[in-house]
Each structure stands twice: as C-alpha cells, then as structure tokens.
Specification:
17 helices, FAD/NAD(P)-binding domain, 16 strands, 452 residues, Protoporphyrinogen/coproporphyrinogen oxidase, Zeta_carotene_desat/Oxidored, single chain, seven-stranded mixed beta sheet
Length: 452
C-alpha cells in the first residue's frame, strides 16, 4: 500500500526520541506522535515561577549509562550541563539520618546498616564480583540469581541488608514491591552504575536531553494514537479521528499501553507484553519560600526511608541541594516520594489529599516543611517503572528472538531496567530491528536479530 509516513514513532519520551534520532541519522524519514502537549515523558521538567521541577527521573550515573552518555555527546551537551550532584544519599534508621548510602565510605560509617549488615554487604559484593560478567544489564534474565525476588535476597544475606539497603533503594527509586520484583535486574544495575558518589543531574532540568533531541526531529504533540493495525506493506494508525499509514511503526510506550494500542500483535509477542507490568509512581514537589535541609551531621541531597520505619514515604529529595539552579534565590524545592501502597491509594485521589498526606509525613523528617510551603504539585505516573517480575524475565528471551516486523517496540520494559538508561538502550535495539526489517521485509522466519 502507499504510505503517508516512512516510520511513525508513537511516544515522545526518552525511548521514542532516541529511536527517532537514530533512525533519522540512518537516513529514514521519521514522524514522532505524542499524546501529551510536551515531550519528555517521565523525564519531563516543569518550569514555574523560577522553579525547575523534575516530575519523574531525578539523577543519572556516570557509569553504566553508555547509551545515555552517547546521546549526550551527540547532542553537544557540555560537562557543565551535566554537573555532579553534591553530597550524599542517606538512609533513615532509628530516628537518625545516616549518610553515605551506596558509597564505599558507608562500610565505615554504617549508612544505616548494622555491623552484621555491613559484613553481609561485603559478602554480597564478593559473591557478585566473582561472577560479574553474568550480571549483564542487557540480559537480566541470565543472572545467577535466576527469578528470585529482592525480598528473597534476605535468605542469603540477612534481613538487615534487605530492609535497610535493597528495599529502600528499589522502592524509593523504582517503586518496586521487593516481594514481587526480581533481584537480577536490580543487582545488574547496581553493579553497572557503582557508587552513588559521582551521580549526575542535568543543570537545566532532567528533560534537557529529551528537549535537545526533540529540537532536531519532527514531533507532533497533542495527537493521541488510538490503535495500530498491520496491513500489507506497512501499518495503519488511528489517531483522534484521523488515519495515518506508515511502512514501520515503533511503539515507544509502556508495555500495557502498547498491548492496548496494538490488539492484534502476533502471538509470540503477547505473553511478554502482558507480563511486562508496571508499578505506579506518585510524588509531590513542594516549592518552598526558604531552603530547608535535612538534619544530618553532613549535608545530604536525598533520604531513602525503609518500609520498616514508614508506610507513607519512600524518600525525600532536596532538589535545591541536588542543584542550586532548581530554585529562585533564597527559595527551596523538595520532592516527597510515596510508598507503593500509598501510591495506589492516592493515584486517583484529589491533589489536595495527596499533598496533605505526604506533607504531614514529610514534616517528621523535615521540620518546618508545612510553614515554608509556597505551592505544591502532584506528579502521578500510572505506568511509573517496569516491575521486572520473575514472569517477565522468563518470557524475555523468546520475545527478543522473534523476527523483525512492521511494528516494533522500545521502552525501559524491553530491558526490564527501570531507568532512563533502560529507555535509551532499548532504542538501540529497536532501531536495529527496524533497519533489519527494511532489508528483509516479511522475513518472519528470520532468527534473532543481534544487537550491539
């Protein structure tokens, strides 16, 4: 059939913009279609009265983020635009803020771990170091941990290490329930990124890279794709009463959304799509009239709060410490991250109820929060981050080995890696498959496409 577009990319989040960028470099014509009014997805930043408010992602690592840093270089971002986050992350334990979470120094200071917990951390590090090559972020289904969950790490390394390090990190940064999500992807990510001491942010907001990518692309915002169907020679997209056709389509949306948009997906894709579930995420950004700080013996920019101590808050990010350019002079900005249980409870609740619940609890860790509060914004992501369940890992290999087709996918769920790097890395896989299909259209019997 005659098509309107060469490649249609559905979704202008991190993976969609990276897919479009790479395909455009390869000489393909690309149109990005985004249902919301702005690009960035879960990396979007709001700009309000001098505040830079990161709605989703907060940081990036200098190690283990190869695809991210490749794009940073290609788009010309300078080191000054990706500064190091000063100070450390801390853990709450027994009424105190314990700095150095995720740093080598934490083995000396404790970072919230007991002496036994620190010894078990050393044992965990030794065990994983011996098998480092088997912890591959591209293939989390192949780790020595198999399909065991984060909570089951306690069987090997004790409750203290899980309760005061693994659970707070996975829950605070991924929204994971430690009893549902597999340990393999989490440990692979930890080993790839290393210490939190050198983590970075984007000076001008976490959407800096996605905005830079979008500037070079054809992006249509405010256009909702409602359904995708395959047809000989391409695919048809139903979009807000308009029909478009394309030779190739890349669905760069969460797996549950992709399954709804593409109901006649081939049988060898459906199981993995449905197994790739997401955890919802909710946080409240509090714009303050002064720069409050957590009461720690050393400055910290984030506090992770174990579930054994708090059922409401997962963590707190002090955004004006993360980078001073986030706020007007003399002001402050704080993000309150809800636990998985409270997120589900408040996901459809009125904003004022969510603000009140998290602010009241936040006052416990950050006295004066309510008095300093100027305005608050609630950020909800029904599809926050991929859950990386054992079931998804079991199905992933067969999904990757399917032949290249008219309709392909990208997103952090493809990698089962809950991070912006997972999204950017998935784009590389998707682009390889689109280009392979262009060379071998209709070759449904082709073996697995290899990706670098």
């Amino acid at each position: 059939m005659t098509t309107d577009l060469d490649v249609a990319v559905v979704g202008a989040g991190a993976s969609g913009l990276a897919v479009a960028h790479a395909l455009r470099k390869a000489g393909r014509g690309v149109q990005v279609l985004e249902s919301s009014e702005a690009v960035g997805g879960r990396m979007r930043t709001l700009r309000q009265d001098g505040y830079l408010i990161d709605t989703g992602a907060e940081m990036l690592a200098p190690r283990g983020y190869r695809a991210t840093w490749k794009l940073i270089r290609e788009t010309g971002l300078t080191p000054a635009e990706t500064p190091r986050v000063p100070h450390s992350i801390a853990t709450w334990r027994d009424g105190r803020i314990r700095p150095d979470t995720g740093r080598a120094r934490g083995l000396l200071t404790g970072a919230g771990l007991s002496v036994r917990g620190r010894l078990n951390l050393l044992r965990f590090q030794a065990d994983t170091a011996r098998r480092r090559k088997e912890f591959d972020t591209d293939h989390p289904e192949r780790t020595p941990l198999g399909t065991g969950t984060v909570a089951q790490l306690a069987d090997r390394y004790g409750n203290d290490l899980v309760d005061y390090l693994f659970q707070p990190l996975t829950s605070g940064f991924c929204g994971w329930d430690a009893g549902r999500s597999a340990a393999g992807p989490f440990v692979s990510h930890l080993m790839a990124t290393g210490s939190t001491a050198d983590w970075r942010t984007y000076r001008d907001g976490m959407d800096t890279l996605t905005r830079r990518l979008a500037e070079r692309l054809d992006v249509t915002t405010g256009l909702r794709v409602e359904q995708v169907t395959r047809h000989p020679g391409g695919a048809r997209l139903e979009c807000d009463g308009t029909t478009l056709t394309a030779r190739s389509v890349v669905l760069c949306v969460p797996a549950p959304v992709a399954a709804l948009l593409y109901p006649d997906a081939p049988e060898d894709e459906r199981d993995y799509l449905h197994a790739s579930t997401y955890t919802p995420m909710l946080k409240v950004s509090c714009a303050l009239d002064r720069p409050l700080r957590l009461r720690s013996r050393r400055p910290v920019y984030a506090l992770v709060i174990p579930a054994v101590h708090d059922r409401v808050l997962n963590g707190i990010v002090i955004d004006h410490v993360k980078h001073p350019g986030r706020v007007p002079p003399g002001a402050g900005l704080v993000s309150l991250v809800a636990t998985p249980d409270v997120t589900r409870e408040l996901l459809d609740a009125p904003d004022d109820q969510a603000v009140r619940r998290l602010r009241e609890r936040g006052e416990h860790y950050l006295p004066g929060l309510g008095e300093a509060l100027r305005t608050a914004r609630v950020h909800r992501f029904r599809h926050g981050l991929p859950e990386a369940t054992p079931r998804a890992l079991q199905l992933r290999t067969s999904f990757l080995r399917r032949p290249s087709r008219t309709v392909e996918y990208a997103g952090d769920w493809l990698m089962q890696r809950p991070s912006s790097e997972g999204a950017f890395r998935s784009a590389e896989w998707a682009v390889a498959r689109v280009l392979d299909y262009a060379e071998h259209p209709g070759a449904d019997a082709r073996p697995e496409v290899r990706h670098g």
